[in-house]
Amino acid sequence: MIESRFERVGTAFLLPTKTESRKGVESSIRSTPVIGVVRTASEGEAESQARILIDAGIELVEITFSCPNATALVSRLLSERPAGGPPWIGMGTVTSPGRATEALAAGSEFLVTPNARAETAAVAVEAGVYLIVGALTPTEIAAARDMGADMVKVYPLPPVGGATYLATVRQPLSDIPMLASGGFPPEEIPEYWAAGATGFGIGAPILGSTPEEIRERVRNSLQSARGQA
What we know:
alpha/beta, 8-stranded parallel β-sheet, TIM Barrel, disordered N terminus, 9 helices
């Protein structure tokens, strides 16, 4: 059994200021650039996956709105973590301004969208949280950056050519930080890193059948994401 890195201190939320959390997210993206994505139809499984990823060393955990009671899970994880983070807990599948508002109310420290919608991005920009906007084409990627995205999630990559596609769109857009996403296995991280990805969003493929296997997958993924593989 994995020993938890969470510590409960009374019942108070151990939340840093928005400026502190933003700097923390930025720092973790530089040092441990893998975002562990939790996407499941089971509430219990979502919580289990989030804790497993954190205990294995993932500093950035994205709870998607496709998980039942996702905002409650975010609030619970934040209330139990060491003061100030990491881990940093964010929300994904933020498809509307309403969802962005819900995520922020739950304490989400970064937002991830699957699409480039200006109204949704505006909520995050106004709140000052780290924003990752989903886009695919060069036009969408540039538009997402103009909306205020700190990083653009190029999604979904595998169906359109994977790392080769990413390398191609980065040729004219190399000044835009890009998160590789879309369901590729951890073993392909080196290809996406070589193509110019700044970060990597990975969900179920990083999970294993035992705690030891998960730690190994996470360790290898983080090494690859830093260009050390």
